[in-house]
Amino acid sequence: MAQKEQSFANHTRLDPLFHRFLIPVGALMVIATIVQLIRFPDWWGVVRIVAAVWALLLTFKVRLYALRLQDRIIRLEERLRLAQVLPEPLRGRSGEFSEAQLVALRFASDAELPSLCERTLAGNWDQKEIKKSIHTWRPDHWRV
Question: What pLDDT digit, counting tens, does each position of 13-65 carry?
Fold first, then answer.
């Protein structure tokens, strides 16, 4: 199955199990246990609220750990790519990029990368500015 061409407009990824099931169900569990505790106050109601909040927080933390690890891997991949693609004067400045900038630069094509890096360093651009400036988009279909 061919992947859809990525661009700034469609590069974000929706994980149906996380965004459409785990989060809504977790939020409903918290709300339902609060309503139940208000209607029928007891210690077990407090325990149920703590358990529902615990499950919802656990869901977010597990996702955030995976995203953080993925950002570290992207940072490493992009530093290696910058060492290969950038001309020497600019290569020496590759340590000045923040992690967020490196994560955004991964979408730029090799041909576009040097000029985009120069503009990013000169203007201290954030992720959104970098992504909006990319003309030839290099897709990342592996992002969690």
Answer: 778 899 899 999 999 999 999 999 999 999 999 999 999 999 999 999 999 99
Helix axes 43-85, 23-39, angle to 10 degrees: 160
Considering the domain boundaries, does residue 70 fall inside one? yes
Provide the percentage of residues in the chain whose pLDDT is more than 90.
70
Q: Is the pLDDT of residue 9 over 70?
A: no
CA distance 16 to 31: 21
Contact 37, 110 (CB under 8 A): no
- Quick check: is 1 in a domain? no
C-alpha torsion sign, points 119, 109, 138, 85: negative
Overall domain count for the chain: 1
Which pTM value belongs to this model?
0.75
Range of the domain at 116: 16-133
In a domain, 97, yes or no: yes
